[in-house]
Amino acid sequence: MAIQLFTQQDENEIINAIKAAEKNTSGEIRVHLESKCKGPAFERAKEVFEKLEMHQTEQKNGVLFYVALEDHLFYILGDQGINDRVEANFWESTKELVIEYFKKAEFKQGLIAGILKAGEQLQNYFPYQADDVNELSDEISKGK
């Protein structure tokens, strides 16, 4: 059974946050939702990252926000281009921000806050260029 956490309006607000974040950076942000995680969160996030072809961006600067709702798992995965340029705990403050909202069952607000923060952080390493192309869909992907 597919996960239904957000209304269409909620999803549109999350997508709008992705679009806003990507105006500041050439980085590409995606959100993936599913009910249960098949294996460790890091491994599953890597699988989803590959399935969504996020590793194929020109600068290797894709970012995945992975959420397994029933298992209460959340993971932020950045591509190699990001990981090669940032400090080891680059995503920690973003992850902590999102989790604070999640603890209050404010899932939409948590994702929006995290996405916008990720856009701000990525801007320092991958600033928006006039010729940037949106390489990945901004739509929320969903598993089971």
TrEMBL record:
Gene3D superfamilies referenced in this protein's UniProt entry, alphabetically: 3.10.310.50
TPM domain residues: 4-119
Signal peptide positions (record): none
Alphabetical list of Pfam families matching this protein: TPM_phosphatase (PF04536)
InterPro entries registered for this protein in UniProt: TPM_dom (IPR007621)
Entry-linked PANTHER family: BLL7265 PROTEIN, UPF0603 PROTEIN YGCG
Name of this protein: TPM domain-containing protein
